[in-house]
């Protein structure tokens, strides 16, 4: 903390003349070549920025130390050393050089210092107070990314971040124009403004920021922007995909656009071309999408073995979805003898990459093994927290049935509700039954109505029954007919005396449902399907008419 306080006290000015003189040195130019960060606004040697994940400390550190020995006060070189030691995992030296550059006024260094301790991705641990202090220092000195990081907890920082990005954009820093566009593009931020966002992306693209160009294409593809154009989307995304910067996600976006028919008719061949191009540029998601086309037979005959090659490559490139798809192939025996162990390992990697569906699959496998059901519950919990309705519903089922955990209907209902909120129709149906058992008939009806609207025909029937019981006779009849039209035999099963169980309210043979049965008969007669009496008696004639309507 003393070190941080000294930074606050110093905030020394940069000697611009010394900087420009050092910039001309071959040693500084060589250091820039192997370590330049896109966050640095000035790029006097016009080098290609190196992403943090692409840094090679063993190669770059000796080169940058030569430059630092020649120009010990050159802030950008000092910053490069700090960033390289960060990549090398040397916490002490990373702090040493990043702090020296920050003290001299190279404010982006504060953002790096903060990121080293920021949340689960912090390379040297999770220290929220320390991370916040460094980001506050960076924001105070006008570093936009630092302000934006702070904005994730306090939205009042976002306008300050935008002000910094806008100012640097006016200095013709294309990356800052792109950052401003992103800040305006995010629907979760108070600064959201799609039209203005597009303007900043356009300016960044003019300044040769390939990522900004790609974002223009992405917005024309997926957002309702002024002058929305498929031609613009294709042009900007293809240019970004083919650029020296290699914006591989732009290749993937093009592939998805062609696969989903966003540019006209669905075109799997063009989709495959762009997915393959993205995979060639090491975009794991593109590899996974191409594998999906191969497995589904969209490029010819189904080719699970060919798909596996691309899923494996995508998984190696940390695409959790690719890991999950490859796990499926091994679990189902599509690549030879089924291997649950290989599938488990792949699902575990996918889950570690926050692919929720992989977490859910792994959780269910482990629970089925019984000895590891507690661990399985943890994976299902992670999947549910990552908004996988399959995981949430599975947890609801386990708590509902009491197979592996003590039965807890209220907890089961809470998991069903989470899955129902994500439009899982079966979970909504389950929620209806759970709420009914808990005595909350109103909540049960709401859940069943949603399940019905999501396509669960059986829930249309149970909803119709519940509103009929509540006195909404015609609405009850209407939803009962809807369930038949959508293929459910629920009413037929429950009107059949052979299935009747004494005391069960879900069987429709008692006198209280006479009006429902007669209403169904009237509707069937109006459609020419039933010619019997309107007597409320469920017999062979009525059953044939109902089965004719539901085709079941």
Task: Explain this structure.
The chain has 552 residues and is mostly helical. Among the domains are: 1-154; 479-552, no CATH class. 67% of the residues lie in helices and 0% in strands. Helix 6 (91-103) packs antiparallel against helix 7 and helix 17 packs antiparallel against helix 18 (304-316). The N and C termini lie far apart (73 Å).
Overall residue-averaged pLDDT value = 91
Cα separation of the termini:
73 Å
Largest sheet: none
Number of helices: 31
Say how many strands there are.
0
Helix content: 55-70%
Q: What percentage of amino acids are in beta strands?
A: under 5%
In short:
This protein has helices at residues 2-10, 16-23, 26-35, 57-70, 75-88, 91-103, 108-115, 128-140, 144-151, 157-170, 174-185, 194-206, 210-222, 230-241, 248-259, 268-280, 284-296, 304-316, 320-331, 340-352, 356-368, 373-385, 389-401, 409-421, 425-437, 441-453, 457-469, 473-485, 490-495, 514-526, 540-550.
Topology:
Elements: H1 2-10, H2 16-23, H3 26-35, H4 57-70, H5 75-88, H6 91-103, H7 108-115, H8 128-140, H9 144-151, H10 157-170, H11 174-185, H12 194-206, H13 210-222, H14 230-241, H15 248-259, H16 268-280, H17 284-296, H18 304-316, H19 320-331, H20 340-352, H21 356-368, H22 373-385, H23 389-401, H24 409-421, H25 425-437, H26 441-453, H27 457-469, H28 473-485, H29 490-495, H30 514-526, H31 540-550
Helix pairs in contact: 3-4, 3-5, 4-5, 5-6, 6-7, 7-8, 8-9, 9-10, 10-11, 11-12, 12-13, 13-14, 13-15, 14-15, 15-16, 16-17, 17-18, 18-19, 19-20, 20-21, 21-22, 21-23, 22-23, 23-24, 24-25, 25-26, 26-27, 27-28, 28-30
């Amino acid at each position: 903390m003393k070190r941080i306080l000294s930074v606050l006290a110093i905030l020394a000015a940069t000697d611009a003349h010394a900087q420009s003189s050092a910039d001309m040195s071959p040693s500084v130019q060589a250091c820039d070549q192997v370590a330049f960060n896109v966050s640095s606004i000035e790029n006097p040697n016009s080098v290609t920025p190196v992403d943090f994940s692409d840094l090679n400390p063993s190669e770059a550190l000796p080169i940058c130390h030569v430059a630092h020995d020649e120009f010990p006060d050159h802030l950008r070189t000092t910053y490069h050393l700090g960033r390289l030691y960060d990549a090398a995992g040397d916490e002490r030296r990373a702090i040493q050089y990043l702090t020296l550059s920050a003290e001299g006024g190279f404010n982006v260094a504060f953002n790096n210092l903060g990121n080293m301790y920021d949340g689960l991705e912090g390379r040297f641990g999770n220290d929220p107070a320390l991370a916040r202090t460094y980001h506050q220092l960076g924001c105070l000195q006008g570093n936009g990314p630092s302000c934006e990081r702070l904005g994730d907890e306090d939205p009042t920082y976002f306008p300050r971040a935008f002000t910094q990005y806008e100012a640097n954009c006016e200095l013709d820093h294309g990356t800052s124009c792109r950052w401003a566009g992103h800040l305006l593009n995010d629907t979760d931020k108070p600064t959201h403004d799609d039209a203005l966002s597009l303007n900043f992306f356009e300016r960044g693209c003019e300044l040769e920021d390939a990522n900004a160009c790609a974002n223009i294409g992405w917005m024309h593809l997926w957002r309702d922007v002024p002058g929305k154009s498929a031609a613009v989307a294709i042009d900007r995304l293809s240019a970004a995909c083919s650029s020296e910067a290699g914006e591989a996600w732009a290749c993937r976006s093009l592939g998805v656009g062609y696969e989903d028919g966003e540019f006209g008719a669905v075109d799997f061949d063009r989709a495959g071309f762009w997915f393959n191009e993205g995979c060639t540029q090491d975009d794991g998601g593109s590899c996974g999408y191409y594998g999906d086309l191969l497995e589904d037979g969209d490029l010819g005959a189904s080719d699970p073995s060919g798909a596996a090659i691309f899923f494996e490559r995508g998984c190696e490139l940390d695409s959790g979805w690719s890991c999950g798809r490859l796990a499926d192939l091994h679990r189902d025996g599509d690549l030879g003898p089924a291997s649950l162990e290989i599938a488990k390992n792949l699902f575990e990697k996918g889950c570690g990459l926050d692919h929720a569906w992989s977490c859910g699959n792994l959780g269910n496998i482990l629970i089925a093994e019984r000895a590891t059901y507690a661990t399985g519950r943890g994976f299902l919990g992670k999947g549910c927290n990552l908004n996988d309705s399959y995981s949430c519903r599975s947890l609801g089922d386990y708590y509902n049935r009491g197979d592996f955990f003590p039965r807890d209907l209220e907890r089961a209902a809470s998991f069903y509700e989470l899955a129902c909120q994500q439009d899982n129709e079966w979970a909504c149906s389950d929620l209806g039954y759970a709420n009914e058992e808990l005595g909350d008939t109103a909540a049960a009806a709401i859940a069943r109505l949603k399940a019905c609207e999501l396509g669960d025909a059986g829930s249309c029937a149970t909803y119709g029954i519940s509103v009929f019981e509540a006195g909404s006779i015609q609405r009850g009849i209407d939803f009962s007919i809807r369930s038949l039209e959508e293929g459910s035999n629920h009413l037929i099963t429950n009107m059949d005396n052979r299935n009747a169980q004494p005391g069960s309210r879900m069987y429709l043979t008692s006198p209280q449902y006479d009006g429902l049965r007669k209403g169904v008969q009237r509707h069937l007669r109006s459609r020419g399907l039933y010619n019997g009496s309107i007597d409320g008696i469920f017999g062979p004639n009525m059953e044939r008419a109902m089965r004719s309507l539901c085709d079941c």
